[in-house]
Amino acid sequence: EDKVVQSPLSLVVHEGDTVTLNCSYEVTNFRSLLWYKQEKKAPTFLFMLTSSGIEKKSGRLSSILDKKELFSILNITATQTGDSAVYLCAVPITGGGNKLTFGTGTQLKVEL
Amino acid sequence: GAVVSQHPSRVICKSGTSVKIECRSLDFQATTMFWYRQFPKQSLMLMATSNEGSKATYEQGVEKDKFLINHASLTLSTLTVTSAHPEDSSFYICSAPQTGGYNEQFFGPGTRLTVL
């Protein structure tokens, strides 16, 4: 059964800190790994990773995939209070077309 | 990116009533849409896959007679929670995959259902 595990479950940091969120996965047939940010409402897309070792970057956020060790990290530098959210990692289910299985998420809180 | 809308954004109903939630893809066609449920402090759990022109497929443990799904057109899927009970109170989110593969999905804003 495909599985996604995220750590830590929750994290509290101060503005300006750098955080690293982890996502490990087990899938029979890996196609991609996706990161989403969820605030009060539905998730918003951050990154999709398909290739090992290639960093994707968007402003202060970046992510990288290691297909050998079966994990991905999401980095946020110079955190701001607006980064407070749940960060979700997901992978397409093997044989499931576009169905996604999500990790439990990491609840990030950035304090002043 | 593509836009997916949901209506209503919030609904409060009495136990025993049925509630319909609409999910629309606004600027693209979606032959497939997904319905998720999210309980407080938990992740998204896939409930079912809505297929345009054919029956929905449900995940294990999801009652198809309770959660009726209709994919009436290439831009609209509806989820009806029949005879709702307080334990059905949850955040319901739909998504539609990007056409052309690569599995990026666009999520609707979600519907918060509260059953009294």
Task: Summarize, please.
The complex is a heterodimer of chains A (112) and B (116). By secondary structure, chain A is mostly beta strands.
Question: Can you offer a commentary on this structure?
Answer:
The complex is a heterodimer of chains A (112) and B (116). Chain A has 112 residues and is an all-beta fold. Chain A has no helices and 11 strands. Chain A has strands spanning 3-7, 10-14, 19-26, 33-38, 44-49, 56-58, 61-66, 71-76, 85-92, 100-102, 106-111. The mean pLDDT of chain A is 93. By secondary structure, chain B is an all-beta fold. Chain B is built from no helices and 11 strands. In chain B, strands 2, 4, 5, 6, 9, 10 and 11 form a 7-stranded mixed sheet that branches. Chain B has a 4-stranded antiparallel sheet with strand order 1-3-8-7, with no helix packed on it. Chain B is globular and about 40 Å long. The termini of chain B are far apart. Classes of the chains: A mainly beta (112), B mainly beta (116).
How is the topology of this model organized?
The complex is a heterodimer of chains A (112) and B (116).
Chain A: E1 3-7, E2 10-14, E3 19-26, E4 33-38, E5 44-49, E6 56-58, E7 61-66, E8 71-76, E9 85-92, E10 100-102, E11 106-111
Parallel strand pairs in A: 2-11
Antiparallel strand pairs in A: 1-3, 3-8, 4-5, 4-9, 6-7, 7-8, 9-10, 9-11
Chain B: E1 4-7, E2 10-13, E3 19-25, E4 32-38, E5 45-51, E6 57-58, E7 67-73, E8 76-81, E9 90-97, E10 105-107, E11 111-115
What characteristics describe this protein?
heterodimer, A: mainly beta, 6-stranded mixed beta sheet, 0% helix, globular, B: mainly beta, 7-stranded mixed beta sheet
Order of helices and strands of chain A: EEEEEEEEEEE
**Principal-axis shape of chain B:** globular
How big a fraction of the residues of chain B is strand? over 45%
Task: List how many beta strands of chain A DSSP finds.
Answer: 11
Q: Could you tell me the radius of gyration of chain B in angstroms? A: 13 Å
The average pLDDT score of chain A comes to: 93
Q: Helix count of chain A, per DSSP?
A: 0
Helical fraction of chain B: under 10%
